[in-house]
Please model this.
Amino acid sequence: MSNPDLKTQVRHDISLLTEDDVFLFNQGNHFCLYDKLGSHPVKKNGEKGFYFAVWAPNARAVSVAGSFNNWDTHQYPLAPRQSSGIWEGFIPGIPSGTLYKYHIRSTENGYEVDKTDPFGFYTELSPQTASVTWDLTRDWQDAAWMENRSNTEMKSAPMSVYEMHLGSWIRVPEENNRFPTYRELAEKLPDYLLQMGFTHVEFLPVMEHPFYGSWGYQCLGYFAPTSRFGTPRDFMYLVDCLHQKGIGVILDWVPSHFPSDEHGLGYFDGTHLFEHEDPRKGFHPDWKSLIFNYGRNEVMSYLISSALFWLEKYHIDGFRVDAVASMLYLDYSRKAGEWVPNKYGGRENLEAVAFLRRFNEVVHDKFPGTLTIAEESTDWPMVSRPVHLGGLGFDMKWDMGWMHDTLAYMSRDPIHRSYHHDRLTFRMIYAFNENYVLPLSHDEVVHGKGSLLGKMPGDEWRRFANLRLLFGYMYAQPAKKLIFMGGEIGQSREWDHDKSLDWHLLENSFNKGLQRWIEDLNQFYRRTTAMHVHDFSSQGFQWIDCHDVQQSTLSLIRLGRTAMDEIIVVCNFTPIPRPNYRLGVSAEGTWKECLNSDASEYGGSNQGSLGQIETSPVPAHGFSFSLNLVLPPLGIVFLKKKESEQESSAQVLSPK
Model:
């Protein structure tokens, strides 16, 4: 129903836009558009209401309709701001929480449409599609985190990421299996991540999306957290709580494509405004979605403003940018004749490259200490190198090759693994060409791929031993780490976005042991300098023996800042225990088992070297001293030189 107290005239003498704003927007250099376009609460000369502004340069008329005027599409027309393409106006009396849309009449063929606000801060609960007026002010309590963030060099710091989908981490079964709210997640998630030792959480896209089954990757609300789990203020509360527990927050961000729903960005003002008109450039054949026109200045301003919005208004600590490869190549998933070469005749999308570089430059300039991470699946050079050196400017890149090779190896029966040993060792040929994150992500537990546990061969004991070994080898590698939710508890079924994780599995000793293994791996990784300080440098890594193909074993050294700061890692990828395994080491004395995946506390068979072992003056692997180890079956052992008998250290779990 309409509001009888609402004044019936739009004010056009109130504007948040300056001439500089308009100039920078049309030039492609305005990156704080969220303060200017969209809907904003305004109080002027005693009048309260909302100011509206929308970019629709090819419209002949634009009006605001909503719950405040019974969706009358004529009552509140906006006025054009000169030749900027922006329509604006102030409507007195509208309170926060009011539903609205823009009604656009195009100059093209009488086209009329109701559109959700491209800059809307809040959206009506799906499947409804109206925008909601909202005030984003909040009294944040994370000042200590924000100050420390800008002083942290993440390249040399530990970074262990828990990737999760907000709608299926937990559910509320007693209330018809409903979603958790942001505030309910805030009660449980920060403490869980703190206990488990993760440094960051990465949310699959929280930006508003019409189809829940897209997991957020078909996004339309680039400035609105999904209302499925609560209000914008509720999401702020969740981020605030995570920061207060020392957990960083990374968002998946999708500037690569957007869905074609009529209420969204597509054909916005009766023309192809945000997307390319030519379907060979503007339509994505894989996802049946639209592709942004990165060469249009206003689109550049729109997308980079979206990134800065989450960093400023929600204190987000960084982005994992989805599907970067699809942006970089004009022929991505296209056959000959289905794509348009660039001006040099090549397949590289020069406009997208320029956009990504500008995005990274602006983010790092405006918000020091924040991270950008590329999901880029090809061999495009220098993805994680600075723009001024010719790179794309990302801080890090997912190592998709490691993920595919390692899972292919681990899924094989151990009797065949000796024939595929290079799957484990090949990574070190390229490991330092980029700053890598090792991802065991959601992509590996969907679309019939099963769970991580389900990929492991053998009976229950062997499957869990293999999975502990997989995670251990992941943490042994130089790179940052990422695990999708459920992997840490040994979820046995494939992930389902409509169901909670199977937390009841922790009643099983194998599942509980795996969870404890991940917790101890994280804590060891975080407190041990050698395990993270040179994650992106070859000076932090050395093979001891990578050629033991017959026995399917590997041994390596992780090096810290000093000669004494050294961790040795030994892996046995077969179910055969290997007593009297001779391993060369760099120093004489006592070496202790810091971690052993076969410890009974983790569900293992409790085989190992009794917690510590003395060197012998027997040369091996090019060293003057060696250890005579017991390698556990399907196990990984982390060893450290004991500095003195009085050395005090955190309690470790290994067979005694």
About this structure: The radius of gyration is 27 Å. The longest helix spans residues 509-527.
